[in-house]
Known about the structure:
Number of domains: 2
Number of helices: 11
Shape: elongated
Radius of gyration: 21 Å
Number of strands: 11
Amino acid sequence: MRKKLVVAADVDRSFLERAAADGRFEVLDRPVTTEEDLAGVVGDAQILVTRSYNRVTRRVIENAPNLEVIAQGTSGIDNIDALVASERGISILNMPGENANAVAELVIGFIISMTRTVPFYTRSVQREEWPREDCADRHEMRHYRLGIIGLGQVGSRVARLARAFGMEPRAYDPYVAEARVTTLDELLATSDIVTLHVPLTEETRGMIGAREIGLMPRGSFLINVARGEVLDQRSALEALATSHLAGLALDVFDPEPPSGGFPDDPRLILTPHVGGCSHECKTAIGARLYEKIVEFLGVRRP
């Protein structure tokens, strides 16, 4: 008997084509973005394909009495009620590291854009201004002390890329022996650029607030491409307004999408949670997601 596979997220076309051609699956392509819509489409699915914006709550899981596996096309799974899934015996598959390069490249782009004030120059030229007088005040990346919070797949990739620009990154991660800084406070106080790369857990929720930002040197830069809930966004924006921060780059928010209220400030860079979104990444995740589901069925097959 074929397994009903509901695709509730945007996935690479190759995944849909391979799954549809596989006689073990009945594929239903129903991308949705809200919890209500997801609860409405999951139905009698045995396999549910999601991404981080799909909230797989108790309500959703209870609406899927036949669900066997949730296949998530991202590394993080904080959008899934893992406790309820475990209670039901539902497995969760995810893609750790598949989007690491895409996220790391965006971080490097943020660093260059903020330290070389690219948004400021863009606005100036658009206004037919030509502000070159103080351009030599900007520094190359090797001038800055880079602090990485979280030395997993993405954080490690950021460190490698940063070294290619002459930086000597340091990291704080209590779960990785290679991390060179033993306390978060020490990293914050000795970094000109801080970038966040931790999963969302009860331990990391709100880990960077007003006190932590206050430890950073005046004129430093802060980047969050982890999860919006890790950073007190209001405190970060206030630090930017008082120029304690010289730049702030956010790819993630709490909630998503954000409700607005952002200042028109060239020192602020905002992107709509696209760090792990690239053609290469989407293609790779589509291929690997299909393979993981097939592997799962192989293990589960009597």
